[in-house]
Amino acid sequence: xxxxxxxxxxxxxxxxxxxxxxxxxxxxxxxxxxxxxxxHAYLFSGNHGCGKTSTARILASLLTCENAKDGAVCGxxxxxxTIHTGVALDVKELDGATSRGIDDIKMLIDGAQWSxxxxxxxxxxxxxAHQLTKEATSALLKILEEPPSYLTFILCTTEIKKILxxxxxxxxRFNFGKIPSKDISSRLKYIADxxxxxxxxxxxxRISLLARGGMRDAVGYLEQIGTVAADKVINKxxxxxxxxxxxxxxxxxxxxxxxxxxIPMVLDQINDMIMASADTREIMFEISDIFREIMVLKANNxxxxxxxxxDTEIVELNKIGEAMKLSQLLKLAHLFSDIERKMGFNINDxxxxxxxxxNCIAILRK
Length: 366
Prior knowledge:
Zinc Finger, Delta Prime, domain 3; 8% strand; elongated
């Protein structure tokens, strides 16, 4: 029996214009294609699931397509048909997380000495490039600086700080930002319509927030909830229950209790959420996100362009923020800055969460 293709692969971008939330990168690469002025090496950095590898494959198509025009590939030539299915002989993809040693890089370098076999160029894509060993990176340096005229390197990484400066200096760099939730929502709605997934707009918005700027995760969440609730109209309650996330109203009530200094109420509300299968890290993320939104609104004198929320909720956040000072919100930011690491390395993450929230209340009382 043939396995069903996942939605992320089915709807993976094959043209620059299909990429979501990376307009500056699309514009630059499109212009490079129109002018036929490509770099010999690229470095794509950013969070997971924001389009780095998809863009690398699209760029590989642009470099090798026989009929590319105005920054778009034809979709019909051999390059277009083989690159996105992973069978192009002249486009090699190396996973730096598993094939990270010097022998793996030596094999790439040895293969680079030969001209392309079927396409007009060779393209080497190295994913998670920061995980290459020191020896492998050293072996890569020379050919990365002066590759054969027919070879282009594309390195992808989620941790650019771990990439050596000698590598950075040899590449044209692009930073992939987190995708705005409104852009993720639009894409999810398109996919849901195509796949006939009956899902309410509030539920789509909830999934887009849950993905935290990653399109791959968002499409994966949509596929999961679409499978388990295939015979229902999916609402945000289904999303919250299935993924163990807390409701926005419940989080806002916790914030209000914190502002009023009601510690017992906060602990009770947290307990209710945990008993309803909410995840402690998700609760803390939601709380920190609301405090960040209040801080931005306060610092921007109520300006909403940096906040992607309905008008009714912005009004409520402005009202909650009246009882807070900007200096207090900045102190809260320092408290939350290290919370993920603390919860990840502690045997009792609920305790860390409760202690942090009580500490927040103490700051808000001052």
